[in-house]
Amino acid sequence: MADDFELDTDDLSRRMDGAISSLRTEFASLRTGRASGSMLEPIMVDAYGSPTPINQVGTVNVPEPRMVTINVWDKGLVNKVEKAIRESGLGINPQMNGTIIMLPIPELNEERRRELTKVAAQYAEHCRVAVRNLRRDGMDKIKKAKADGLSEDDQKFWEQEVQDLTNAYIAKVDEALETKQAEIMQV
Question: What is the pLDDT of residues 60-118, one digit of tens each?
Fold first, then answer.
């Protein structure tokens, strides 16, 4: 009856890729002492009555290694963009020049670098939990198939497939974390 059972490992893999992608987005928002336009992605500006990403109200550029500029298209939104950056918790003091907002990226001190590595570790742990939850979903499907008549050998085979996939993705998370922590600690 369940001899034709086949777990959709491609679906599990795709969902685990989504968790890794989300982790990379979270890592991009961490400030490393180097300018990056992606650090502004999570910031929303109250534009035209609704929260809008900064890159939809102006052009974000990185002209120098320690400078991000935003050329706001609508003069009426310049103050709102500046306010959103100040309140974002990035620790950056915006400087206004007409419709251009300049964000000088200060050097990170040792204490702040250590704090950021801890934040990166928390992001990585959330991603590991997401991957493990997907593993559990796969294992639950295998158990259900076992109850429907899947042989014990097939059950062990599929469980090993899911575990191997999980181990591979946990290793990717660990590798991404090591890379990000090295980037943060680099002076």
Answer: 998 888 889 999 998 989 999 998 888 876 778 899 988 899 988 877 788 888 888 88
Angle among Cα 129, 117, 65 to the nearest 5 degrees reads 125
| Long-range contacts of 148-153, Cβ-Cβ distance < 8 Å, separation of 24 or more | 148/1, 148/2, 148/5, 149/1, 149/2, 149/3, 150/2, 150/3, 150/5, 151/3
What residue spans in the chain does CATH classification 3.30.1360.40 cover? 34-104
Q: Tell me if the domain spanning 9-27+109-185 has CATH number 1.10.132.20.
A: yes
Instruction: Say whether pTM exceeds 0.85.
Output: no
State how far the Cα of 12 lies from the Cα of 150, in Å rounded to an integer: 20
Asked if 61 and 71 count as a contact pair (C-beta separation under 8 A), the reply is: yes
Number of residues in the chain = 187
| Fold assignment, 34-104 | Gyrase A; domain 2 (3.30.1360)
